[in-house]
Amino acid sequence: MSAADTTLIVIAKAPVAGRSKTRLTPPCTPQQAADLAEAALTDTLHAVLATPAARRVLVLEGTPGAWLPDGFEVLPQRGDGLDERLAAAFEDVAGGGPPTPPALLVGMDTPQVTPGLLAAAAAALHAPGVDAVLGHAPDGGYWAIGLCVQDPRFFVGVPMSTESTGREQEARLREHGLSVALLPELRDVDLIDDAHAVAALAPDSRFARTLEATR
């Protein structure tokens, strides 16, 4: 089995003004924040689309829009907190059993992600002796997680959206006996400073162009 046999998952919220990227307002208006969320999601989906994979799945809160390209299965999110939603995403993609092939999940907050980064992450997940991969973010969270086996206990109860989420998630995986390979760190977009830093890393992205249009 090769890296191209990986299932790629994007977990996302449909971009809606007043509900998307609310920490960008101010200085952005609610519509500008939603536009940036849509651009980030679109960049991410197209990076996934350009990465060799067995399946591409969008696990979505909300309704798909014109931003969704062909080539994705769409599943609804379920669960109360993000920990439950992550557990359910892997479980639903696997159809209730272990993921076959291994699955790599990313969010919609790192529009600078590239097909090369995703392919390398998938390759790391297929390396001998590796059970999981995890990509930390500078704010303490994580931007990607991949599993060769799925179990809700890997996620449920891990505190989300804190400065220690990434560390606690890695510890939880290791507590369950998984061998974890670490991916490169990526900055995700939460605040306007993050947006400008990420846009500078990917100046030709939809996200960067959309941010420029807000000035």
- The amount of beta strand, in percent, is 15-25%
Radius of gyration: 16 Å
Could you name the ranges where pLDDT drops below 50 across 5 or more consecutive residues?
none
Helix and strand run: EHEEHEHEEHEHH
Average pLDDT over all residues: 95
CATH topology: Spore Coat Polysaccharide Biosynthesis Protein SpsA, Chain A
End-to-end separation in angstroms reads 47 Å
Number of helices: 6
Strand order across the largest sheet:
3-2-1-4-6-5-7
Instruction: Give the name of the CATH architecture.
Output: Alpha-Beta Complex
| Total beta strands | 7
Helix/strand class: alpha/beta
How many structural domains in the coordinates? Answer: 1
The largest β sheet comes out as: 7 strands, mixed
CATH H-level name... which superfamily? Spore Coat Polysaccharide Biosynthesis Protein SpsA, Chain A
What does this structure look like?
The protein is of the alpha/beta class. The protein has one domain: Alpha-Beta Complex (Spore Coat Polysaccharide Biosynthesis Protein SpsA, Chain A). Helices cover 33% and strands 17% of the residues. The chain contains six helices and seven strands. A seven-stranded mixed sheet has the order 3-2-1-4-6-5-7, with helices on both faces. A hairpin with a 5-residue loop joins strand 5 and strand 6 (142-147). Helix 1 packs antiparallel against helix 6 (206-213) and helix 5 (192-201) crosses helix 6. The longest helix has 20 residues, at 30-49. It is globular. The mean pLDDT is 95.
How do you describe this structure in short?
This protein has 215 residues and is an alpha/beta fold. Helix content is 33%, strand content 17%.
